[in-house]
Predict the structure.
Amino acid sequence: MKVRGAVRPPGDKSISHRALMLAALARGTSALTGLLTGADVKSTAHVLRQLGAEISPIRDGVAVRISRAPLTAPRARLHCGNSGTTARLVLGILAGQQFAATLTGDASLRRRPMRRVTEPLRAMGAEITQLGDTLPVTIRGGRLRDLTYTSPVASAQVKSAILFAALTGRVAATIREPYRSRDHTERLFAHLGLDIHDRAGAIVFAPAVRPSGLPALDLSIPGDISSAAFLVAAAVLADAGELVVENVGVNPTRTGALVVLARMGAPVDRINLRDAGGEPVADLVVRPAALRGTDVTAAEVPTLVDEVPILAVLASRARGQTVFREVGELRVKESNRLELVAANLRAVGVKAEAQGNDLHVEGGDAPPRGRVDTAHDHRLAMAFAVLGTLRGAKITLSERQSVAISYPDFFRDLRICCA
Ligand code: S3P
């Protein structure tokens, strides 16, 4: 297989969620370009509309306009679809509101842990009712108090839920996490002029204005490195050629996969470095490479947490073994990614295994062949579709529609760049 040309990945999912939420809180009318049109971001828009925000249709190539209306009690449950970011961050926003709302989601989201967010929000003073650890969750916000919190997990969703609660409830928050997770919320807050900073490894936020005092957003959202990673991987696995992946967010809290790829023998060049709304952006130049196995450390995991499926696929083509340390969090993503990455690699002839919280993958060069169960998980579908581009590969996916969660045009783009 040969790669060629230039391709633009869709808008960053994490930034798209946050920008929509902040736009719904800020004054006036905001305009967002490059917003992801995937189903997860539409779930956020749907929930914000249920809470009273006015949001124009989310379509490719069209700026999305968001007008603030004071948030009001929803008439129905807030359905967050498949989106963990929607559920957890909206809980944060609701902690500072004076009404009750119930959140739910699809079968996958209803299996995912919510206490990691509801616990700190309760400590801030929100009233929360939930059975066990999962959705549905009913929250009644109100008068909050300041919080100093050490999170047991390096989760940007936990951190962001607290920051949104502090913003809407007008209280201070100090947050520590075991490793620094993606910092898009902090960057957007700073971009809007809010007082947020790093003090001795902790994030310290003290809102000086009401959310309605925030300026309207006029933002261009960069491409998602987590989506770009699939195209980068396809280019690394190709026999020849060169691929340019344009307009990719290269925030250092997200670029762990590029660091690991360089260590595996596939350096990716960054050109045209620039800034978009406080986020670094570049074009990536990728060429085919012979890979060697590596050890991915626990400290690196938050910077590549969504890229483990595609890195594991690449590891299956490397010389030697690759170990991903402390990736237990993958069990509570859209599917049990730890077990399913290993099981699906085995299903196509690769030696792979979850040992405790570590994932071990043995590299080889036999053509991968077999049936992959995506469990309707977008990142599993895309990772194994990339493996299927190898010469001699024969991979059948149990379904392909799940890519619409984060990368609706994935199969088109993969076809365009891989001849
Ligand atoms: C996200 C944070 C990560 C990531 C998810 C998006 C975000 O989850 O896996 O896809 O936008 O904050 P955790 O915060 O649970 O690690």
User: Anything to note?
Assistant: The CA atoms of residues 247 and 397 lie 29 Å apart. The chain has a mean pLDDT of 97.
